[in-house]
Amino acid sequence: MAALAVILLAFGVPPAVSWVLAVPALLLQFLFNAGVSLVLARLGSKIPDLSQLMPFLLRTWMYASGVMYSIPHMAGAHSGLPSWVAPVLQANPAAVYIDLMRFALIDSFHAGQLPDHVWLIATGWALLAAVGGFIYFWKAEETYGRG
């Protein structure tokens, strides 16, 4: 994050109060990542070849998350895609956390660009992954390490 702040300052992005929003966004993303890690740990204990499949799944997820493109522009009215595609892509957890960080650090000076419900979606994904991942991992606790 320190390197990102230096890059933003080098490109002339002035520091803003909204930069403080990066902290809760990172905390929500941490909860989400921890929950997904617990689910994958349990699955990986039973399916050793999952580690070979993960790079392909993560790359596909990256391409669906709007890292390389803007979801609203790609799924706009003139894209020819069904109307349900844009909301599904925008509810993708990776896209939600990217939007939160992008808004906090870069786009905050454009008032109204980030809908309020994005924080609710981010919180929902974080709680679902953290609580669900913990319970899923914990349910098989006695089987770990017993070959």
In short:
The protein has 147 residues and is mainly alpha-helical.
If you had to describe this structure to a student in words, what would you say it looks like?
The structure is a single chain. The chain is mainly alpha-helical and 147 residues long. It has helices at residues 2-10, 22-46, 50-63, 71-74, 85-90, 93-105, 117-139. It starts with a helix and ends in an 8-residue tail after the last helix. The mean pLDDT is 86.
How is the topology of this model organized?
Elements: H1 2-10, H2 22-46, H3 50-63, H4 71-74, H5 85-90, H6 93-105, H7 117-139
Q: Strand fraction band? A: under 5%
User: Any idea what the shape is?
Assistant: globular
Ranges where pLDDT stays below 50 over 5 or more residues in a row are: none
Largest sheet: none
State the distance separating the first and last CA atoms. Answer: 40 Å
Give the integer mean of the pLDDT values. Answer: 86
Number of helices: 7
What is Rg? 18 Å
Helix-residue proportion: 55-70%
Query: How many E strands?
Result: 0
